[in-house]
Specification:
The protein is of the alpha+beta class. It has one domain: Jelly Rolls. Helix content is about 25%, strand content about 30%. The chain has a seven-stranded antiparallel beta sheet. A hairpin with a 6-residue loop joins strand 9 and strand 10. The chain is globular, with a radius of gyration of 17 Å. This is Proline hydroxylase. InterPro entries: DUF2086 (IPR018655).
Length: about 260
């Protein structure tokens, strides 16, 4: 297996370090984070084009049948989540995934802190992901939340929010591992936003293989005529029409 998705033997289980993180930091640094933050402010989501190469996408998707990488296997229909399935990774995460989780967090933490300030919330997030994870673990949220999702024809994911305990980081990232039009059809990423006393607004986010979308988990602030107000967001995936679709999700808080 390529070293990019191998498990690190030197890093701590929940806080990777070393070459995997350094490589991820270099990869993440090439994006215009001022523009991405503006998109998050304006639309609740932002696309990082070609975050992963096609080879890296295939290698991550190929992990799905191998149970040793995962702590649990969820069939959505059993829980009313939709139709399809996903697996939560166990610690230690694959190097590529753990490195990206560590490298993306400090780019998103300033947005999260600004949002909480605008919404009048007291919570502030530390700059280092390891420090935030320690808070999660101290609160009893010990289980890793990054996941690998698999959809086949007829599968879909109901609109939802990925909240797993009292502590939740307000942004997360999903990376499309399959190529639309070649590997599958349908299966669009959908984000909905409910503003007070208004009808819901839907945002369909077009992605190609290797693209990532950063988006709001739960709430975000919107500037109104009388100041900032809070809107509620949910995300999901529309029905897959043909083929097979794989996505990896990077959630920054751990679960109870």
């Amino acid at each position: 297996m390529n070293s990019a998705v191998s498990r690190s033997r030197e890093a701590s289980p929940s806080d990777p370090s070393g070459p995997a993180v350094e490589a991820a930091e270099q990869r993440v640094a090439r994006y215009d984070w001022t523009a991405l933050a503006a998109n998050l402010d304006n639309f609740g989501c932002a696309v990082l084009e070609t975050l992963l190469s096609p080879e890296e996408c295939r290698e991550l998707a190929a992990l799905y049948p191998h149970e040793e990488h995962f702590r649990s296997h969820i069939h959505m229909a059993r829980h009313g989540f939709g139709k399809g399935e996903y697996r939560y990774f166990r610690y230690p995460l694959p190097d590529l995934l753990g490195g990206l989780r560590t490298a993306l967090y400090p780019r998103l933490a300033p947005v999260a802190n600004q949002w909480n300030e605008r919404m009048g919330l007291d919570t502030r997030y530390p700059q280092r992901h390891a420090d935030f994870l320690k808070s999660c673990h101290d609160a009893g949220q010990l289980r890793p939340t990054p996941l690998l999702l698999q959809y086949v024809p007829g599968d879909f994911n109901c609109l939802h929010q990925d909240l797993y305990g009292d502590l939740a980081f307000p942004l997360q990232v999903a990376i499309l591992l399959s190529e639309p039009g070649r590997d599958f059809t349908g299966g669009e990423f959908v984000l909905t936003e409910q503003r007070p006393r208004m009808q819901s607004r839907a945002e369909v986010v077009p992605l190609r293989q290797g693209d990532a979308v950063a988006f709001a988990v739960h709430n975000r602030p919107v500037q109104g005529t009388k100041g900032n107000y809070r809107v509620n967001l949910r995300h999901g995936v529309s029905r897959v029409r043909s083929g097979k679709r794989h996505t990896v999700g990077i959630i920054f808080h751990d679960a109870r």
